[in-house]
Design brief:
With 144 residues, the chain is mainly β. The chain has one helix at 7-21, and strands spanning 32-37, 40-46, 55-60, 63-70, 89-96, 107-111, 114-120, 129-133, 139-143. InterPro entries: A-crystallin/Hsp20_dom (IPR002068), HSP20-like_chaperone (IPR008978), Small_HSP (IPR031107).
């Protein structure tokens, strides 16, 4: 899996522009953990305060796109924020998945602000044993 190498640069730029302008229209990226657990990859995204209905997942070829929107907090007339550090707006992240993953069987769950995706390893990519027929009746099994 590959991720965006410019994520840290975006974070620093946001801090600089937010300090100068109060808020900046481009929201930060969503933090992510990814690991392999047995025959599947697990990817978790932090999306606190995001309504599950505001999350979109798309797979096109081997590119998985996660898009989420955190709507700004409602403020009544006459309310003036003193501090507004929680970003709102649209968050998006793309993961480039290897050919060995089964993108047709991705499952997603959202619990307490964490979106967890489970991506199984494709059957064709799993190690398997191949039987070799010998000249006699005996067969020898070799790991492939």
């Amino acid at each position: 899996m590959r991720t965006d190498p410019f994520r840290e640069l975006d974070r620093i730029a946001q801090q600089v522009f937010a300090g100068a302008q109060g808020t900046w229209s481009r929201p930060s990226s969503m933090p992510m953990d990814a690991y392999r657990a047995g025959d599947e990859f697990v990817v978790s995204f932090d999306l606190p305060g995001v309504d599950p209905d505001a999350i979109d997942l798309d797979v096109e070829r081997n590119v998985l796109t996660v898009r989420a929107e955190r709507r700004p907090q409602d403020s009544a007339d006459g309310v003036e924020f003193q501090v507004a550090e929680r970003p709102s707006g649209v968050f998006s992240r793309q993961l480039f998945l290897g050919d060995t993953l089964d993108t047709d069987r991705i499952s997603a769950a959202y619990d307490r602000g964490v979106l967890t995706l489970r991506i199984p390893v494709a059957e064709r990519a799993k190690p398997r044993k191949i039987a070799i027929a010998a000249a006699g009746d005996d067969q020898k099994v070799i790991n492939a």
